[in-house]
Amino acid sequence: MDALDPIPISALQHWMYCPRQCALIHVEQVFADNVHTARGNAVHALVDEPGYELRRGVRAERSLPLWSDRIGLIGKADLVEFHPDGSVFPVEFKHGPKRKHTHDDIQLAAQAMCLEEMLGKPVTRGAIYHASSKRRREVDIDQGLRTLVQVTTQALRAAIAAGTIPPPVNDERCENCSLKTICQPEVMDDKHTQAYLRDKLYEADS
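Below the sequence we write its predicted structure tokens.
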């Protein structure tokens, strides 16, 4: 079987948040920062330096490289805890308050699935560390999340191969998106204005 082109684990989070945002980043190769991405970068700086520490018998590895040849994923885990009982526990760092988001959970589940393939042992739980509230939200890596990882990876791989850019959503997600200026969701979603401009495109000046 031919090796699959690896998909960045972080791209799954982008796709679940907004397919258009994901395609702009991973197909068009464009990106921009705003206050939210700056806060995220500041949080990840806490775990971006590879290394480890031991606390009460738990070995915590920072910035651990991850991959899955079976699914075709590549990336890194912010933090992976190796417990004395042999259990493995990935932790993903996010800058916002403690709140459930599927686009965060799918990223954690993908990390768990990579670890399972790499280590040959089950990884059934993990956590999102929410920096704003300084609290963990534990996540069960259940079959629903595992299926979502596989389906999303396939959809994303197909979109990248086709080079397609999904239409804008133009909803509340756009307000916090760093690519709003590039995406221009209000203009792209304004079908009336688009039709008017298209009709006027080839009219001669009076």
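Residues 7-166 form a domain with the Lambda Exonuclease; Chain A fold (CATH 3.90.320.10).
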